[in-house]
Structures are given as structure tokens and as C-alpha cells.
Amino acid sequence: QHVMSMAEEEENTGDTQHIQPTEPEHQNFGKTKWNQLTEIEKAAFLKWGNYSVTTNDKHEEVVCDETNKTFSKKGLKRVIRRYFAVLNKKRNKTRNRRKRRTSDPPTNVTEMSSGDTTEQKCDNPPPTKKRKYRLLRSKNLRAYVQDKLKQDAGAPHIVLDCRFNELMDNQQTVSVATQIRQLYGVNMKAPKPAHVYATSFGGVLKAQFRSKSYGADTDDAHENEGLKNLSVWCMNFIAEPLETHFAAEIEEKQKEVVYLTADSEHELSGIESDKLYVIGAMVDKNRHKGHTLRLAQQNGWKTAKLPILKYMAMDEENGKQQSRLVITVNQVFTILVAMYNWNDWRKALQFAFPSRKGLVLKEKLTDHELQTLVFNGDQISVHNNLYTKATRNDGNQENSTAPS
Q1: 3-class state of residue 188 by DSSP
Q2: Which of 107, 109, 364, 379 gives 133 a disulfide partner, CB atoms 3.0 to 4.6 angstroms apart?
Q3: Residues ≥6 apart with Cβ < 8 Å to 157
């Protein structure tokens, strides 16, 4: 009955693209154990994550991930909680859309008769603000970013080295995939974006980019939609390792590899266009300390670390203790892009370095400088008509700005 009522409700509202009859009840945040789920919820959860079920020596059901590794009890609870959070987020979005459709008209509305027609006029209309900028989204934003990259010869080349799948468990791989999505969003909003590559991209990490936003209604047609969408990203996903893909440029000394690692003895001085800045796409929780440094040394690559302690010091006022200066992949990427945009390490570190590390700038920024620390590269003047739906439909315009 619950499934039929949901289907009828969506049919009446004309919105049948978001909720399918196979989707279970979404208010189940109290359910975090496998044996608490109903049969419908179990089937939907397994299909959502491409998971499987087997039995252990005690003849108990255990859940395995895409690589047939068994989830721990704590790890399975975390994934189940995230699954229901995805469903709840999708339901809230649908509910808010219905509210906007059925919202009440403005108050204090009077009717005005003019000939054969009757018009409505609000006595106290809300004040209107003239917009100077408009936000670009989707294809328009991708075309805009591609054009900026073509015109900017000095844009840096940042490589995400994704060869560490075997060193991470499922949850850490999920974290890396999330960080890649976040840094991609940062680069799209940057006034001056960077060229981004993900080398050695495949395996479990690549599987995380399947379309999971559909929740339980994901079917075979939508299963690989997330992977297909990667082809239009303003980012290069490469299956080869970086030493193979960039072999010709490295041998001809057109590019020089600089592997960024917190264990390096050298500090990065600036951002140069003839360098390949490599970030190890790994979440290891200090289990593999020095692994990226050894990898760079074996391949004869230069190494460097961010000049954090040169511009920052421990916050003595709050009494925080300095922790290990290892930050996430997307935070390192954001600092590099911010440095390229503002050419100031203080601004870049203030903009992206996490405050939880207990470090503050030795020389603080002024209020005016703090107000300028914004990435608004996705805004364009309202008078600029180059990146609109009309121009995208033009064959020449589409070919000139199509993402690679």
C-alpha cells in the first residue's frame, strides 16, 4: 500500500522522475544495522552500492563491497547511515520543489479591470534589486572554463596520482572520490582555473563515480551514468600512470614533475607553468607515512611541501597544539589554485588551510584583504551573452568550447 500511494502521489503531481516504486521509506535514520532493514530496504541498499551478501562460518549474513571485501560492523553501519541520508536529501529536494509550486500568491493583491481583461496588481510589491552578475551552470560553465584555460598560457598543471587503491579500504576510497568532486568544484569557480589530471584512474576509485545520487531507484540504464558524465568534466581522467602519460614531455624537459608531500625537505616557492604538480590521491590515516616521498625518489622526481610553517604558527591564544601538517587532497589543491590566482601564500593559506590544525598566520591579513578571498569565477556580467543556451546550440560555438 505504501508503494502504491507513493506512485499515485507522484503521478498526480506529474513528477515521476525522482521517486520510483522500489524506493523504501526514507525516515530510517535509526536503522544502522543490517538485521534491522526490511527485505525491500536490503535489496535497494545492495543495488545502490553494487554490494553483495554472503554467509560466514556462523551462517550469518555479511555484506561485501564491490571488491568482495567484507564490511566490518562499524563500516557497514556508516554506509547504511549514508545510504539513508542520500534518500532523505533527495526526498527533501522533491518536497521543497512541491512547496514552491503550491506556494501562496503575494498578499495585498487587488484586481484592476481594463476593458475586457482583469489584471492583478500587488499593492506592496517586494523591492527588486538589479542584478549585475549571473551565475553560470552546467554546459555554460564548462564552456566558460574551457575558454579561460585556452586563453591562459600560464595556467598550472595539477596531477592527482590515483595509484593507491590497494593501500586504502572502502571508506577511505569513498573519501578520496568525495575530495576529487570537491576540488573539481573549486577549480570551476576559480577566477583563473588550473589544468587538472587524474592519472592511474580506475578500479575501486572509478567505481565510486557511478551515479549513486539516484538512490534505490538506480537501474541498469542509470548505473553507469556517473561514469559517462566524467567525459564532459573539465578534467582529464587517465588510466595510465603519470610517468607513462607524460613520458614525452618529461623526456623533452617540457615539463618537470614536482611531487607534493609533507615529508619533503624542500618548500614550494611559487607556481610555474612548466611544472607538473602531483598530489597523491590517498587517505592513509598515517599508516603509510613517507610512501609518496619514496615513490618520488624512486622515479627521480623533485619533491616539495607547502610553506605552511614559513607563514603560519601555533595559535597560542586558543592553546591549541600543533598537529601533523598533513591535509586532505582537496585542501592542497585549493591552496595551489588560490596561490596561482592571488600570488600570495598568506592569502592562499588563510583561504584553504583548515583551522582545526591550530595554526594562524604570523602576519594577519587586513579586513579588506579578507573580503577579497572569494572564488567567484562562475559569475559573469548580465550583459555578456556569449555563454547562453542560444550560443550553445550554435554548431561553431559548441565545437569551440566543448570540454575535452
Answers
A1: helix
A2: 379
A3: 194, 195, 197, 255, 273, 275, 276, 277
Task: Say what the pLDDT of residue 90 is.
Answer: 83
Alpha helix stretches (DSSP H) within 52-169? 73-101, 138-151
Using CA atoms, how far residue 197 sits from 118, 162, 177, 403, in Å, is: 60, 10, 14, 14
CB-based contact 171:78 (threshold 8 Å): yes
For strands 109-114 and 117-122, give the pairing: antiparallel
Average per-residue pLDDT for the chain: 80
Cα angle at 13 between 10 and 18, to 5 degrees?
45
Instruction: Please compute the mean of the pLDDT values over residues 61-73 and round it to a whole number.
Output: 87
Q: Which helix (H) or strand (E) holds 346?
A: helix 345-352
Q: What is the C-alpha separation between 293 and 305, in angstroms, rounded?
A: 11
Collapsing DSSP to helix, strand or coil, 35 comes out as: helix
Interval 83-91 mean pLDDT: 86
Cell numbers representing residue 399 in the block: 565545437
Kindly state the cell numbers that stand for 24: 523504501
Tens of pLDDT, residues 240-276: 999 999 999 999 888 999 999 999 999 999 999 999 9
The backbone torsions φ and ψ at residue 297, rounded to the nearest 5 degrees and listed phi first, read -65, -35
Please state, in angstroms and rounded to a whole number, the distance separating the CA atoms of residues 212 and 47. Answer: 10
Q: What is the pLDDT of residues 330-350, one digit of tens each?
A: 999 999 999 999 999 999 999
Pairing between strand 195-199 and 302-304?
unpaired
Nearest CA to 261 among 297, 235, 237?
Answer: 297
> Using one digit for the tens of pLDDT, what is the confidence trace for 264-321?
999 999 999 999 999 999 987 777 888 999 999 999 999 999 999 999 998 777 655 5
